[in-house]
Write a structure and sequence with these properties.
It is built from eight helices and five strands; from the N terminus they run αββααβααααββα. The chain has 239 residues and is α+β, with helices and mostly antiparallel strands. GO terms for molecular function: RNA-directed DNA polymerase activity.
Length: 239
């Protein structure tokens, strides 16, 4: 479980980054017997530097909780993958940055939308921190006991911080990227006249010809309405 997310080299509140063979067997037994009632522990807050000089907040689970999240992910991902838009590339099996880069290059060089194209590039403001919990739960297909477990995961909160009971799925968790993709699925097709390519919270819309200011405003309004229903909004400095 320590190999499946960006917080793999960082310990949660259990202080562990790896388990002994004996501990692994004990954890496997605990999960097998108690997965229906698994109590997710608090997360550990960690900050990592970003390229722009700011810091990204991570919420690091314990190893046991990472394993539990992985079980939920294995149950949820096949159904979710069957519904995901083809132009979504981030945190998906068999897809990566090189795939979206290739698709973007081919789209920009294609004559299908004419020689002149208008590009709308945007990012979502604190996407993982602000996703509405009710949206996540409404859009996940899981048995009742597993959905209750998912609710405990997203409401676990960070040790020493006042928990948000309504929004957020912390970066650093195994299942968080999948939940973000589930919440954002469909944003790729809300502007029929544009080709949208999405990598997690980063999106590019490509239009034929030049968009005037009223058209640009309408497009942004449509996107923000979609995001607003999920507790999200675009980041002005990256739009």
């Amino acid at each position: 479980m320590t190999q499946l997310n960006q917080g793999k080299a960082t310990a949660g509140i259990d202080g562990k980054t790896a388990l002994t063979p004996k501990e692994r067997m004990e954890l496997a037994s605990s999960l097998q017997d108690g997965w229906k009632t698994w109590e997710h522990q608090k997360l550990r807050r960690v900050y990592i530097p970003k390229k722009d000089g700011t810091k990204r907040k991570l919420g690091i689970p314990t190893i046991g909780d990472r394993a539990y999240q992985c079980l939920l992910k294995l149950a949820l991902e096949p159904c979710a993958e069957a519904t995901f838009h083809g132009n979504s590339y981030g945190f998906r099996p068999g897809r990566g940055t090189h795939d979206v880069q290739k698709r973007l290059f081919n789209t920009l060089n294609s004559q299908a939308k004419g020689i002149n194209k208008h590009i709308l590039e945007l990012d979502i403001e604190k996407c993982f921190d602000n996703i509405d919990h009710q949206v996540i739960l409404a859009k996940t297909e899981l048995p009742a006991c597993a959905k209750n477990g998912l609710k405990r995961v997203i409401k676990a909160g960070v040790k020493g911080e006042f928990p948000s009971s309504e929004s957020g799925t912390p970066q650093g968790g195994v299942i968080s990227p999948l939940l973000a993709n589930i919440a954002l699925n469909g944003v790729e097709s809300i502007l029929p006249k544009a080709t949208c390519l999405r990598y997690a919270p980063d999106m590019v819309y490509i239009f034929k010809g030049v968009q005037n200011e009223p058209e640009q405003s309408i497009n942004l309004e449509v996107i923000n309405n979609f995001l607003g229903q999920r507790g999200l909004n675009t980041k002005d400095s990256k739009t």
